[in-house]
């Protein structure tokens, strides 16, 4: 391979920094006040307690002193403290400047192709990337510090050096790791509360009256057969274990935990907005303007093809001229909706097809559960473990399908976004994120939604069951309800997805790719020059690393996990605990990947995390609705309340199980569905099933009873009250927590005032130094020297000025 190493001299860096309006520190420093005396003492005590958790890196944002920042200007060089030109612009800024130049430079040998991205897309160049620092031991190298204090599993207990990450990788990646760190730290209190809720369920399991009644063999609730012919009547006490296990997650504490998690999500988003503003202030991102983005190579190619089809050569020439001069097309050259209509149509049809495919697979798993349960019920040896076997195998099938479709949907979303031909990279990224999130959201949660809200709702009743596929009955919930099965489904999918993705997709596959590239490079080097491979240059080492493809996969993984933590937390209070354990490893895994396994990304300046915040906010609001329905419909919380306060004779739950079971006359079973060779130890006249229906001796047998409508009304009322209460509390929390921290808003105002004073003072000093020779000189010679000094470029006329030295080249 042939490498071209590009480095920019000081003049180029200064010109581009002024053009891009890059903020740099001035000579003026001021103190950052921490508030009142109490706040100072608390901050000092907190810093002392957390000192063992702090990474051993130079401090940046924690300093009490901060430089005033101002956009770089070559006319105001006297404002800046330029001691060494090589280090005035940091690594990330220099690489960003060079990349901006490359993006807008036309290549005349490639038909005036605009920018390095177009050259890479046309296979003229294979890659373009900034070089990593040489990995050596002296601690003044940022790359080495990041490896030692951030990218090792042994420092998992330490805070992240966010300022150092931003300095090396740029603001966009720095904000991602800051967000991931805040999310992980917020999982700690939710994990503690979740464990307390779970322990409350364990502690009160012996006091749960309904589960005790179900386990009481003297009650002898004779239940209707679970399947036709091969299934016999059975005692409800045989489901004792399921009923006791359901109480661990279906207890009054889960309602409190659902409210807490809804407020937790709001608190997390509000604190992230505050942290984002704080980082923006310390990173000099306040007040930056949105940069004009260059067109994507695919967009330029599409426009050229359009012009060629119209046989308008002058338009093509005009397009090339405009592209060369300004980096973007005129309005008349933009693609219209007619040009994009085939792509939009393909997107709409493909997304509908993918969603239908996901639902079809979920339905296929449902059919598998029904048919497998029926088949296992025919065999006496497997009949007792039918429910456990079917549930476990079905969840594993769902997990495997989700993992496979996740990879497919990611590739499909990228292909669909490409055929839309977005103009800029930002538009491309936003549309890709929306498509990938929609497909992966449906893929990950559709099996869970089925168990939570649809399973057991369309079963029918004895004597009038709902059948599918020629005689297979729709599956029912377990005697203790579907909440336990929902917990199993959620836990296995969440844990399996995290473990397999971390171990296989994030560790195993990249390692195999790296090993393959290394073997390939060694083979090629051995064929050409075996001696050269012994001492490879840094660009050779970086070329063997995995190309950087963006932060979308990293964010997507955490967003889907955020959905698992919030959407169904009423059924699985331990979800935050497993998310926390995963994220402690995930932070170091991602850090190691960026430091040692990926080529160094181009530094990108941004003020926020973009569309991801809107997605998080949407999931947080949707979680309120989903948890309200889980508590109201899936759990027995509402039926228990209704019974306790409306039907119980003594205000307790004694008799609740009997109240929820309806009677059925077995003589009314359809012909051919009665149990064959029943081994039940007594003659059965009536069997019980879980529903609120009129008994066989009522005027309207098997119709829904008044209790059914009462409970249904209570469920809907709970959903409305719960949703509005939590939404009100969330809005209240949002209102109470300001988006901008008070100290930061005060510092921003103070900085503006100090900047004006600093400008006036420096201008005065500059004019004073320029006029002093003229005032002291008695003759015209000195006056001529004074004019020469004033006409010289600013910052270069002073004797001994730091800018008087010759220009130096800065490697990038």
TrEMBL record:
GO terms for molecular function: intracellularly calcium-gated chloride channel activity; protein dimerization activity. The chain crosses the membrane at residues 176-200, 253-269, 344-368, 388-412, 432-453, 558-581, 716-737. It comes from the Eukaryota. The keyword Membrane applies. Residues 2-162 form the Anoctamin dimerisation domain. Residues 787-801 have a biased composition (Low complexity). GO terms for cellular component: nucleoplasm; plasma membrane. Residues 313-325, 802-812 have a biased composition (Polar residues). It holds the Pfam family Anoctamin. Residues 309-332, 770-812 are annotated as: Disordered. Residues 165-751 form the Anoctamin transmembrane domain. It is a multi-pass membrane protein. It is found in: Cell membrane; Membrane. Keywords: Cell membrane, Glycoprotein, Membrane, Transmembrane, Transmembrane helix. InterPro entries: Anoct_dimer (IPR032394), Anoctamin (IPR007632), Anoctamin_TM (IPR049452). The keyword Glycoprotein applies. PANTHER family: ANOCTAMIN, ANOCTAMIN-2. Belongs to the anoctamin family. This is Anoctamin. It comes from Mandrillus leucophaeus. The lineage of its organism: Eukaryota, Metazoa, Chordata, Craniata, Vertebrata. The gene is ANO2.
């Amino acid at each position: 391979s042939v490498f071209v190493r590009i480095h920019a001299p000081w003049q180029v860096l200064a010109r581009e920094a002024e053009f891009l309006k890059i903020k740099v520190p001035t000579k003026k420093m001021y103190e950052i006040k921490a508030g009142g005396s109490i706040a100072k003492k608390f901050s000092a005590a907190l810093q002392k307690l957390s000192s063992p958790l702090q990474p051993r890196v130079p401090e940046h944002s924690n300093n009490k002193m901060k430089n005033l920042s101002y956009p770089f200007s070559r006319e105001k060089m006297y404002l800046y403290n330029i001691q060494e030109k090589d280090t005035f612009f940091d690594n990330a800024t220099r690489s960003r400047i060079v990349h901006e130049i490359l993006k807008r430079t036309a290549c005349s040998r490639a038909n005036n192709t605009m920018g390095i991205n177009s050259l890479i897309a046309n296979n003229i160049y294979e890659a373009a990337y900034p070089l990593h620092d040489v990995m050596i031991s002296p601690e003044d190298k940022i790359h080495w510090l990041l490896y030692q204090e951030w990218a090792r599993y042994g420092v998992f207990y330490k805070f992240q050096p966010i300022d150092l990450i931003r300095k090396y990788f740029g603001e966009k990646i720095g904000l991602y790791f800051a967000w991931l760190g805040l999310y992980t730290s917020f999982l700690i209190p939710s994990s503690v509360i979740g464990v307390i809720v779970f322990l409350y369920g364990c502690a009160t399991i012996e006091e749960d009256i309904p589960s005790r009644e179900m386990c009481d063999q003297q009650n002898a609730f004779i239940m209707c057969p679970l399947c036709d012919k091969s299934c016999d009547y059975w005692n409800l006490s045989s489901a004792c274990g399921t009923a006791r296990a359901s109480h661990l997650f279906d207890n009054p504490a889960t309602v409190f935990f659902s409210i807490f998690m809804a407020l937790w999500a709001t608190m997390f988003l509000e604190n992230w907005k505050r942290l984002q503003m704080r980082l923006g202030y310390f990173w000099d991102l306040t007040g930056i303007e949105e940069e004009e983005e260059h067109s994507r190579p695919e967009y330029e190619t599409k426009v050229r093809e359009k012009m060629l089809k119209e046989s308008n050569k002058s338009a093509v020439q005009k397009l090339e001229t405009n592209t060369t001069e300004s980096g973007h097309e005129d309005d008349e050259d933009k693609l219209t909706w007619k040009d994009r209509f085939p792509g939009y149509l393909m997107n709409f049809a493909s997304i509908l097809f993918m969603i239908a495919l996901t639902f079809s697979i979920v339905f296929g798993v449902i059919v598998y559960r029904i048919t497998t349960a029926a088949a296992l019920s025919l065999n006496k040896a497997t009949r007792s473990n039918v429910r456990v076997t079917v549930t476990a195998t079905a969840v594993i099938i769902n997990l495997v399908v989700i993992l496979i479709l996740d990879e497919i949907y990611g590739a499909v979303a990228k292909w669909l976004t490409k055929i839309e031909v977005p103009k800029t990279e930002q538009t491309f990224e936003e549309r890709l994120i929306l498509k990938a999130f929609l497909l992966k959201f449906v893929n990950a949660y559709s099996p869970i939604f089925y168990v939570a809200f649809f399973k057991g709702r369309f079963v029918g009743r004895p004597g009038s069951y709902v059948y599918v596929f020629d005689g297979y009955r729709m599956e029912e919930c377990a005697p203790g309800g579907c909440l336990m099965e929902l917990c199993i489904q959620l836990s296995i999918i969440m844990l399996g997805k995290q473990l397999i993705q971390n171990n296989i997709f994030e560790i195993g596959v990249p390692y195999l790719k790296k090993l393959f590239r290394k073997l390939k490079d060694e083979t090629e080097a051995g064929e050409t020059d075996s001696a050269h491979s012994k001492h490879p240059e840094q660009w050779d080492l970086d070329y063997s690393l995995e190309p950087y493809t963006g932060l979308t996969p990293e964010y997507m993984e955490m967003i889907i996990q955020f959905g698992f933590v919030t959407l169904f937390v009423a059924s699985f209070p331990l979800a935050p605990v497993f998310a926390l354990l995963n994220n402690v490893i995930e932070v170091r895994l991602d850090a190691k990947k960026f430091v040692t396994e990926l080529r160094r990304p181009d530094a990108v300046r941004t003020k926020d995390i973009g569309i991801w915040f809107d997605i998080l906010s949407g999931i947080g609001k949707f979680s309120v609705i989903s948890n309200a329905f889980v508590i109201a419909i899936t759990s027995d919380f509402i039926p228990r309340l209704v019974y306790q306060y409306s039907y119980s004779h003594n205000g307790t739950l004694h008799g609740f199980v009997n109240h929820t079971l309806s009677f059925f006359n077995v003589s009314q079973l359809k012909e051919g569905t009665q149990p064959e060779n029943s081994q039940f130890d007594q003659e059965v006249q009536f069997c019980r099933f879980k529903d609120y229906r009129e008994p066989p001796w009522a005027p309207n047998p098997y119709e829904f009873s008044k209790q059914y409508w009462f409970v249904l009304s209570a469920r809907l009322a709970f959903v409305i009250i719960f949703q509005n209460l939590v939404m009100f509390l969330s809005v209240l929390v949002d209102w109470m927590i300001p988006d901008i921290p008070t100290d930061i808003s005060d510092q921003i105002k103070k900085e503006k005032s100090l900047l004006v004073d600093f400008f006036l003072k420096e201008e005065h000093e500059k004019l004073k130094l320029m006029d002093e020779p003229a005032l002291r000189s008695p003759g015209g010679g000195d006056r001529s020297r004074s004019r020469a000094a004033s006409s010289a470029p600013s910052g270069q006329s002073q004797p001994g000025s730091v800018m008087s030295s010759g220009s130096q080249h800065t490697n990038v």
